[in-house]
Specification:
The complex is a heterodimer. Helix content of chain A is 75%, strand content 1%. By secondary structure, chain A is mainly alpha-helical. Chain A has four domains: 137 residues, no CATH class; 86 residues; 150 residues; 244 residues, MetI-like fold. Chain A has a two-stranded antiparallel sheet with strand order 1-2. The chains are: A mainly alpha, B mainly alpha. Chains A and B meet through helix 13, helix 15, helix 18, helix 19 and helix 20 of A and helix 3, helix 5, helix 6, helix 7 and helix 8 of B.
Chain lengths: 697, 318
């Protein structure tokens, strides 16, 4: 059985008497029922059921019906009347004033009509209050508007009357004035400069003084320019136009805010006790909002409906795809499809389809929640929000969602979808023989890698080993160099600190690909460095022909490149260490080594640790240096097969597998390995960061 | 030197000091005025060694760069760079670069991509950073965790998909070029990490300003525009700068995504001067590298403080 409360409640918990006598009667009876038991209760229950059954015969209901008929007549009449009223208005009124006047007229009529029904229900009360507010504001809006219009008209008329003679005079005056001021400015600056020469003021003061003088000069000129009648008139017209646009807007906003206030204080009475609309219109967002009389919102949700039924679902079913077959394409992977159709397309379009469907479900959920919330509130007595209120609400509470939506969208389609594609790809057999059509093969790729089988998998462990060595040795080497240099340079007795610091910045500042390629050129068989090395050792050593030498060179090169960044970082930290720490240590008789070990190292390490870890991850994925220096070579097919060279690390191997040799599936499996590794390192890095701890995620 | 002379005869040095000020200073420096301890012999040797180390490393850094500059201007170098003791100043490699290669197109492409990436990243990140720092909304913690996770995924994880995704996108939007895809990848990949950095930075700014603005009737958007953006400007500048520099440095993504030499970025384009024997011209590469490096080096040298502090702020203080 339906259950009604005796009182209506608004958002902040104020209670209001019911005006619907019929519902009030039921509510009172139900309240009674709570108190008594047994026979009496049954009798009351019957009475309630009687009431519910004979709803149409209840006097209140009849009165209300009459009101509703009257009301619809009134609305119709009002439409006609306002049209008639509009035609009586003067013809030369502007469109806006016309609209405002008609609104005002309507408000007056509304007040008269709804005043009679205030006692009957809260709807009439609300309309009455609204009309009263409108009557308060519209005359004001009209008067301000016409006033500004009048001023504008006057200003425009004045423009016609401007005499060319006066304008010319004003221009002449302005010219003179400008000359005068310019002279003045020049003199003032001269005197400032003189003061500077005499060392009365500082360089900075001179600069600021100049700035201020120039600023003042400009200001004076702008002011003077306004004395010219034409210019002044122009400004005035511009101002008035702006006011004309903004003032009525402001007043209307105030009116809306006042109405919103009234809406909060005037409850609503409905007969339903369950959110019926929400569940019955669940599959068509927008309809429920329409039934709740929230029209703009309904329009927006209808767009969502449009997206669901004309984009997401057809796409998921395979209509409108580029090549694929919606979600089912994920299973078939283009098997049996025409030759030009590729499995890759089917895979990606399937994933896209899944995301579109997820978004569609999200829309459905949001709509359901919205309608349900409105309905549940109106059952309690809270009036649904109008568009003005909704908009304010979105601006307040919805703000973070609205502003981060574009970012979320891009992240989903640029980061998440490709990553999931890669993940899925690792379970297929995409290789040179299966380029356009491939199929699901489960975890075979991972098995191949772990067991080191096949052409692509056999070198995996070797490459992984070298990758780990490379990451550890190259990074540590660079860190050591950078740290040592920073330590030395920061010593108080070192001369020319600034020069050294600028030089040490260079490897970081010059784009790495340029330096790497240039080193690669110099290490080529007839390159400059090869010549020098040969001269030193007396025999021809070509670094690029030997795996071990190339590896050593790469580590050295990374030391050259990476140390600069570490140097800068460490220098920054070192300079921030308070010197009293060292002084205290000196007084206690500490040696240089002790000071370094006990003070410098802990502080530097503590502050730079997360960044040092990112250096390791960076080198783990340092594609540029490996690929650009020697393309991963030298090649040694007996040891490394045809797919990889002696210095290839995992990233460059992935690149070669994917872009050159077309072993995409295996490469996807390796990517997964690598990503997990990188994520682990990254986790180590930010685990200790303050941000991570404070958020307590 | 108006000391009362109580029967003390001025020494020669004092007299000289009165006449020649510089002599006087030199004379004074005989007194040990520094508050540092005087150096022992051991210390002196150490200092010399330290200076030697620094100078040697400077030479190691400068020599290759010097070689690059020299070979860019050396008219006696041919297609392959060799150790050449003879030098003849010439701009012919630069002429080759501008006339025979697509260098200018590469510069245009790179600048287009860099600027768009920086702007797009800033647009995304300034909003998300603000939202995550200042608002407590539903799903905040979960999505922050997701962001934390996503920022660790390396960009190349998606290389296999990007190509195909571009063909799907360009079938819907015919004007969607590969370069635009690259821009989206760069800026999309930068959102997660930079959101975190900016959020940390805005967290460290007290909310008093926002509260005051709110009391004065500012909307959220106005607070963002008038309060947060100006206050967070240093960090935004750093984020913008790094996103701007990224495409200059990156080699992998253009290599994967861009196919025609006309659409290459500098990194991919200059590489063709070195590795492709048809277009091989190493001195021209040196010239192009030099031209590319100079503005970036100037940028780095002038902004080194901000760049480094931005990085450490982002991850240490977070």
């Amino acid at each position: 059985m339906r259950k009604y409360n005796r009182y209506l409640v608004d958002e902040i918990g104020n209670t209001y008497e019911r005006k619907n006598q019929y519902l009030l009667e039921i509510a009172l009876l139900q309240e009674e029922m709570e108190k008594v038991g047994g026979q009496e209760r049954k009798a009351l229950k019957e009475k309630v059921q009687e009431l519910l059954k004979n709803k149409g015969k209840h006097p209140y209901h009849q009165a209300y019906k009459a009101y509703e008929e009257e009301k619809s007549l009134f609305w119709k009449g009002l439409k006609k009347e306002s049209k008639a009223y509009e035609s009586t208005l003067e013809k030369d009124l502007s469109r806006n004033v016309r609209i405002f006047k008609v609104q005002d007229f309507k408000a007056r009529k509304k007040e008269i009509f709804f005043k009679n029904y205030i006692e009957l229900g809260y709807e009439a009360t609300y309309y009455y209050e609204e009309a009263k507010l409108e009557q308060k504001y519209y005359p004001e809006i009209i008067s301000t508007y016409t006033e500004y219009q009048k001023h504008l008209k006057e200003a425009k008329e004045q423009r016609q009357k401007l005499s060319a003679e006066e304008e010319a005079q004003a221009k002449e005056r302005f010219k003179e004035y400008k000359q005068e001021k310019k002279e003045e400015l020049k003199n003032s600056i001269e005197s400032l400069k003189k003061k500077r020469k005499e060392k009365l003021i500082s360089d900075k003061a001179l600069k600021n003084g100049k700035k201020e003088l120039k600023h003042r000069y400009k200001k004076a000129l702008t002011l003077k320019a306004l004395e010219a009648p034409k210019k002044a008139n122009q400004e005035l017209i511009q101002n008035l136009k702006h006011e004309l646009k903004e003032k009525p807007k402001q007043l209307k906003k105030t009116l809306n805010a006042d109405i919103a206030d009234k809406r909060r204080k005037i409850p609503i009475e409905v007969e339903k006790t369950k959110p019926v609309i929400a569940y019955s219109t669940i599959f068509l967002p927008g309809l429920g909002q329409l039934l709740n009389k929230q029209f703009v919102k309904a329009g927006l949700f209808l767009l969502a409906s449009f997206f669901i039924y004309f984009a997401a679902i057809p796409y998921a079913l395979g209509y409108g795809n580029y090549q694929g077959d919606g979600i089912s394409g994920l299973i078939t992977l283009a098997e049996g499809a025409p030759r030009v159709y590729t499995s890759m397309m089917f895979l990606i379009e399937g994933i896209l389809a899944i995301f579109l469907v997820l978004i569609a479900i999200g829309f459905l959920g949001i709509s359901l929640k919205d309608i349900k919330g409105v309905e549940e509130k109106s059952i309690r007595g809270i009036r649904p929000k109008n568009w003005f209120e909704t908009l304010e609400n979105i601006k307040q509470e919805g703000f973070p969602y609205v502003v981060s939506f574009p970012a979320l969208f891009v992240i989903i389609f640029i980061v998440v979808v490709p990553v999931i594609t890669t993940l899925m790809l690792s379970f297929t057999n995409m290789d040179p023989q299966h380029q356009s059509k491939f199929s699901w093969i489960g975890i075979d790729n991972y098995r191949t890698l772990i067991l080191g089988e096949g052409l692509a998998g056999s070198v995996f462990w070797q490459i992984l080993g070298w990758t780990l060595i490379w990451t550890f040795v190259a990074t540590t080497f660079a860190i050591l160099i950078g740290f040592l240099l920073a330590l030395i340079t920061n010593h108080e007795r070192i001369l020319g600190k600034k020069i050294f610091r600028t030089i040490y910045l260079l490897p970081w500042a010059v784009p790495a690909f340029i330096t790497i390629l240039f080193f690669s050129i110099m290490f080529s068989p007839n390159g400059a460095l090869t010549d020098i090395i040969s001269n030193v050792f007396g025999e021809r050593i070509i670094v690029k022909h030997s795996t071990n030498l190339t590896r050593l060179t790469l580590i050295g090169l990374q030391g050259w490149l990476g140390s600069a960044y570490i140097f800068l970082l460490t220098t920054g930290v070192l300079q921030a260490i308070p010197s009293d720490l060292y002084e205290a240590a000196e007084i206690d008789g500490a040696t240089i080594w002790q000071k370094t070990r006990r003070i410098t190292m802990p502080i530097v390490l503590f502050q730079t640790a997360p960044l040092l870890i990112t250096q390791y991850t960076f080198n783990f994925n340092n594609f540029s240096i490996i690929y650009l220096f020697h393309g991963g070579g030298p090649f040694n097919p007996t040891r490394y097969g045809n797919l990889a060279g002696g210095t290839d690390i995992l990233v460059s191997y992935i690149y070669k597998l994917t872009m050159v040799n077309q072993y995409q599936a295996i490469s996807a499996a390796i990517i997964l390995f690598v990503s997990l590794g990188v994520m682990f390192f990254a986790y180590l890095g930010f685990r200790n960061s303050k941000a991570f701890k404070e958020e307590r995620l | 030197m108006d000391r009362p002379n109580n029967g003390h005869r001025k020494t020669f040095l004092e007299k000289m000091g009165e006449k020649f000020p510089f002599f006087q200073r030199k004379n004074k420096s005989k007194l040990y005025l520094s508050d540092r301890q005087p150096l022992t012999l051991q210390g002196k040797i150490g200092l010399v060694i330290a200076h030697l180390v620094l100078i040697i490393w400077s030479v190691i850094i400068i020599w290759p760069l010097y070689q690059m500059v020299v070979s860019a201007f050396n008219g006696l170098q041919d297609g392959y760079l060799v150790l050449n003791r003879n030098f003849e100043f010439s701009l012919k490699h630069f002429e080759y670069l501008f006339n025979e290669t697509l260098y200018l197109a590469w510069v245009r492409n790179t600048i287009f991509i860099s600027v768009s990436t920086a702007l797009l990243t800033l647009l995304f990140v300034s909003f998300t950073g603000y939202a995550y720092s200042r608002y407590r909304f539903k799903g905040r913690k979960a999505s922050l965790m997701a962001i934390l996770l996503i920022q660790t995924i390396p960009v190349f994880a998606g290389i296999t998909a990007f190509f195909t995704m571009h063909s799907i996108l360009s079938s819907v939007l015919p004007y969607f070029t590969r370069q635009m895809m690259l821009i989206l990848i760069y800026s999309g990949g930068a959102i997660a990490a930079n959101t975190f950095i900016l959020k940390g930075y805005i967290d460290s700014i007290s909310t008093e300003l926002d509260d005051a603005a709110k009391i004065d009737g500012c909307s959220n958007m106005q607070i963002y525009r008038l309060i947060i953006m100006p206050v967070a400007k240093p960090m935004l500048m750093i984020i913008g700068l790094w996103s701007f520099i990224g495409p200059f440095m990156d080699f992998l993504m253009p290599r994967v995504l861009l196919t025609s030499p006309r659409s290459y970025t500098l990194a991919a384009g200059l590489f063709t001067l070195v590795n492709d024997f048809r277009t091989m011209n190493q001195p021209a590469f040196a010239a192009g590298g030099l031209l590319t490096a100079i503005p970036i080096v100037l940028l780095f040298v002038s902004l080194q403080g901000q760049l480094v502090s931005g990085l450490s702020k982002g991850s240490v203080k977070g």
